[in-house]
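Sample 3 of the quickstart, ligand iron/sulfur cluster:
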Amino acid sequence: MRSTKEYRIDPLSCAYCAKCHSVCPTYEATGNEGFAARGKILLASAMRGDFSALPAGLLGDPRDNGAVDWHGNRELNEYLDFCLRCYRCLEVCPSMMATVPIFEAMRFEIAREHPPPLPMQWLMRSVLAERGNTRLLAGIGALPFSLLPWAAKRVRASDKLRSVASKLHVDIPASTLSARSPTVFLGKMEFPLPASVLSRGRVYDFIRNHQNVAQPERGTIGYFLDCLTDIHFPGAFSGTVRLLNSLGFRLEAEFNSPCCGASALNTGDEQAFEKMARSYAKTFADAPFDRILFTNPTCYKTVKERYPEILGDKELAALPEPVLDVELYSELPAPPIHPAWSDLNIAWHNPCTLGYALGDKTTAPSILRKWGLKISEFPDVEGCCGYGGMFYLRYPEFAAEQSARKLKAWQDAGIDLAITCSAGCIGHINATAIRENIPIPTIHWGELG
Ligand code: SF4
Ligand code: SF4
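Result:
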C-alpha cells in the first residue's frame, strides 16, 4: 500500500503543472485555483513568507501587499475547508506532493495564531479524546430517539433485501441492515444518530465473553474500535469478530481507547491530536498481541503514518503493528458467510483513504468476490461520496450531490445493497439515500459476519 510519508511536503517542490486540477471535485465545481491542490500549495508558500513561487493572480498578487495576513485570511480558511480530503490530487501528482498532509500542516499553523472555537476544542480535547465521554454524549444523543423512534428517518430497503435480511439472524439492534441508519435532518444538514446504549452493550458483551474461535487457533490480534463505528454501527465490530473467529483468530479489544486523531487533523487542533496519539500509546504499550486490527482505513493511516511525528522510537517500538482489515482478509481463506448474501446485487464503495491515499482500489472487491458475493464496481462514479470528515457538515448540499450521483448509478444498475469499510461514508451515503428516497442501504463489510 502507498505511504504518504514517501511524498514531499515542501511546497516549493510543486511543479505547478496543474495536473491536480483535472481530478479535483471542488475545483471542477468552482473553477477557482484556491480550491485545487496547486492553489493551496502556493498558499502554503505564501504562509511561510516565500512569495517568489506565487503566481500573480492568485488571491490578487501578494507581492504588491506584503501586509496580507495569510494566517488569518478568511479566504484561506475556506480554501482549506472546501476540500474533500479525497487524495485524488495526491494520486495524480507527478512531483509526489503530499497534498492533504500539507493542508493539515497549514491548518495547524493557522490554529497556532487563531485557535479553533472553544466548543470545537472541547469536542476534540474532552469528548473525542476520552472514549467514556464520547459514549456518554452519544448515549444522551440517542436517548430521545430510542423513546421516539419515528422521529428519525431510515433508509428504505427493497423487498428482496428485506427477505434476505430475515434469513440472516443478524444481531437486530446493532445491525445497520435492520436499523437502516436512523438519521435526523435539520434543514440541509444531516445527523446520523448514535446506536442505543443497549445495542452497543450487546456488542461489547459478545466481544468480551462469547467469542467462538474455530480450531486450530491462529493466535490473538488486538482490535482498535474506532469511534465513529462505535457510536453509529457497533454491529460491524461483532460481525468482524465473528468473521475472524471463524478463521481461527481471537480478537482482544480495548474498549477505552481514544479517537485516533483523524478528527483533530481535520479541524486543525494540534493539541488534541497530540493528546490522542499519546493516549493511544499509553493504552497499547506492551499489549499482549503483536498486531492490532483496524476496520477503518482513516484510523489505520493516521496511526501508522502520523504517530511517528508525535511519538519517540521507544514508544513506537512498544506498540503492536497496525494491520488493516483489507490486508488481513487478503491473506486468509474465505470465511463461511451466510449463503443468503449471495442473492443480492451489491455495489462496493471504495473509501478515498483506501483508494487514493493508500492506493488500493481492487483488493477489497476481489476479497468479497472470493467470499461468494456478487460485487459490481462503477468506474463512472468512483471517488469521494462527499463525506470528507467535517466536509459534509460544512457543505451539506455539495456533499449530498456527490453521494446522490453514486446512489442513482447504483439504482439504475439494480443494486440492492452497498458495502464499504468506512463508517463516515456509511452515515453520509445512507443520509443521502433517505433524502433521495433510494432503497439502497450501505453497510460495513464487517456486518457480513
Ligand atoms: S499535480 Fe502536483 S506538481 Fe502539479 S500543480 Fe498539482 S500539486 Fe503541483
Ligand atoms: S483532496 Fe480532493 S478536494 Fe481536496 S484539493 Fe485534493 S482533489 Fe481537491
